[in-house]
Amino acid sequence: MNKQNLFFVILLVVSAVLLSLGIIQKLRHSPKEAEAGRRKLVIAVIPKGTINMWWDVVRQGAEKAAEEYGVEIRWNGPETETDREKQIQAVRDALVQNVDAVVLGPNDFKALVRPIEEVHEKGIPCVIIDSAADTDIYDAFAATDNLAGGADAARLLGKAMDGQGSVLLIKYVPNSASTDDRAKGFRETLAKEFPGITILAEDYTDGTVEGARQKTSDLLSRFPQTTGVFAVNQPSAVGAYKAIQAQGKAGTIKYVGFDSDSLLVQAIEDGTCVGLIVQDPLQIGYLGVETAVKLLNGGKPARDIPVPSMIVTIENVAEKKQTHAAALGL
Questions:
Q1: How far is 130 from 109, CA to CA, in rounded Å?
Q2: N-to-C CA span, the chain
Q3: Would 23 be classed as within a structural domain?
Q4: Which of 36, 248, 275, 318: disulfide with 313, CB 3.0–4.6 Å?
Q5: What CA–CA distance (Å, rounded) separates 108 from 48?
Q6: For 162-203, how does the pLDDT look when each residue is reduced to its tens digit (9 = 90+)?
Q7: Where in the sequence is the domain holding 269, given as residue range(s)?
Q8: Which H/E stretch holds residue 101?
Q9: Are residues 222 and 197 in the same domain?
Q10: Co-location of 235 and 130 in the same domain
């Protein structure tokens, strides 16, 4: 064999080896192999909003679970919790990207029903977190017992007011199931256990701290006889407290909030906030992803996964700052 023929033989052998390696590489990434779990599972995590501190802690929990279970999460959602259309689009974007599971915190009880149905129609596991939607075709629901949390807030405020006085109820936005349940639990418990306390007014805000501040300020001006205030979530609670401060009534008006923030923790320590009902957003995010992984691996996790809330007051705030800093927004 002359040198020229030998060169062509070597070239053919090398080409054949490279071709086979290419085929093997393609096989390794074929749809069947991906479905068999040989690629990293991808889970879409879609919050109510992305600029709220509370949801940032949810993200930390989701990322913690993703790292522990070796999966990838894709965090995508609207900036504000009132942007229903953008959240709906985030769900549909996840379906186009062929994610393996969806973890969703619906920002509207009604509007997110059809997108959840679309996830179900695709045969993709769907875990709802934080707030319910008007459907039962999800696989699991991990959230605070918001009715019970609202009841705890009523008892905390009612006792601080010695069962007498007039309160304002600062709500969030319409069709937010979690915050509506907190308002309901508060309202019903106050009526049943503290008949000497009257709700002067209750109203929704626009979903922002500034909107809550302005709404509370207007109500305080209309009802100067107010002796107590309850606000149902972090932006509402921060805004309401700022309004009380601005009118020079911090410490005079008995105040209870739901969720936390460094400002509100300081208010407890200063004695100008009776206490807070605090969720564990880190745990909610973690459980959402963990439950999705279990479903994808053929497990049968509980359909309803309660996440206990905490009552934080001057008596235990120092301890909770050590044990639940993230939940307190610190």
A1: 12
A2: 78
A3: no
A4: 275
A5: 9
A6: 999 999 999 998 888 889 999 999 999 999 999 999 999 999
A7: 146-278
A8: strand 101-104
A9: yes
A10: no
**What is the percentage of the chain residues whose pLDDT exceeds 90?**
76
- The neighbour count for residue 161, using CB atoms within 10 Å, is 21
Same domain, 242 and 93: no
Q: Which two tokens stand for residue 114?
A: 């059809």
**CATH, residue 59:** 3.40.50.2300
Q: Quick check: is 194 in a domain?
A: yes
Flag whether the pTM goes above 0.85: no
| CA 106 vs CA 109, 152, 178, 277: distances in Å | 7, 24, 10, 21
HSE of 283, CA atoms in CB hemisphere, 13 A: 16
Counts of helices then strands in the chain (DSSP H, E): 12, 12
Q: What is the C-alpha to C-alpha distance for residues 155 and 83, in angstroms, rounded to an integer?
A: 33
Residue 234 to residues 24, 257, 280: CA-CA distances in angstroms? 53, 8, 13
- The neighbour count for residue 325, using CB atoms within 10 Å, is 13
Number of structural domains found in the chain: 2
Integer Cα distance of 190 and 256 in angstroms? 13
pLDDT of residue 236: 95
Answer yes or no: are the C-beta atoms of 285 and 60 closer than 8 Å: yes
User: Could you tell me which of 145, 149, 110, 151 has the C-alpha nearest to residue 130?
Assistant: 145
Query: Which residue, 285, 300, 307, is CA-closest to 139?
Result: 300
